[in-house]
Design a protein that fits this description.
This protein is mainly alpha-helical. It has 11 helices and 4 strands. The strands form 2 sheets. It has a two-stranded antiparallel sheet. Strands 3-4 form a two-stranded antiparallel sheet.
């Protein structure tokens, strides 16, 4: 049996990773410090880019980033992804550098699927900033909807125990064995049961978006974690 604090800890980690992993990606791309925005030209440098993003004015309308913030985001994205898009293998390679002590490939796969809104096997700059805009600048409901979509692996509108077990295993593989070395191999199963005891309000075996949002809003730790990075950029 795992300790109660460990159960609650990994449940909250699942929410925090939605934001934290995106911040790690931004740090990797050199985007956390917005002060460098003044040194960025006003126009995208597109001569060597295969995928041409929407204009900055258009992206400014569609996201909650300013034009200068978008310039900084684009410069970092283009430096690491010269073609203008990132595929899943490259995405996994990036994430493997964030969690060298674990196996982040499965969690990176789930996160890539959440960013790849067009389901074309690649994440463009637009996909990237649309997701970050929700995660970093969206309302609590926006952020929780995004997290729910990440966990709803088959996108049928509800989270099953099987889906949550896959998510928990991916989190455990990525960081749990280092962070919680005393855990049993069946620990992810216990986390799933605890998750459903808290979230599945009508006990029908699945968690709907309404149940997810309502339960998360009642959890002080989750709410605090959702607000940690409000002023990152």
């Amino acid at each position: 049996m795992i300790d109660k604090w460990e159960v609650e800890g990994l449940q909250t980690v699942g929410i925090i990773l939605v934001v934290c992993s995106s911040l790690k990606l931004m740090h990797f791309l050199g985007l956390i410090d917005i002060s460098v925005a003044d040194s960025v030209e006003d126009d995208f440098e597109l001569s060597t880019v295969c995928h041409r993003p929407e204009s900055m004015d258009k992206l400014e309308e569609l996201t909650k980033f300013t034009k200068k913030e978008l310039q900084v985001l684009y410069r970092g994205f283009k430096n690491e992804c010269p073609s203008g898009v990132v595929n899943e293998d490259n995405f996994k390679t990036i994430y493997s550098q964030f969690f060298p002590q674990g196996d982040s490939s499965m969690y990176a796969h789930f996160l890539f699927e959440a960013f790849d809104t067009n389901k074309n096997g690649s994440v463009s700059f637009e996909d990237f900033v649309f997701g970050l805009s929700i995660i970093l600048r969206g309302t609590i409901n926006d952020r929780l909807n995004w997290a729910f979509n990440l966990y709803d692996l088959n996108k049928d509108g509800c989270i099953t125990k099987e889906e949550m077990l896959d998510i928990m295993k991916s989190i455990y593989d990525m960081m749990g064995k280092c962070t919680y070395p005393s855990m049993q191999e069946d620990a992810p199963i216990e986390h799933v049961e605890s998750f459903f005891q808290k979230m599945d309000q009508n006990k029908d075996g699945v968690v709907t978006i309404e149940e997810f949002i309502e339960s998360c809003k009642k959890d002080e730790n989750i709410m605090q974690s959702m607000q940690l990075f409000d002023n990152v950029i």
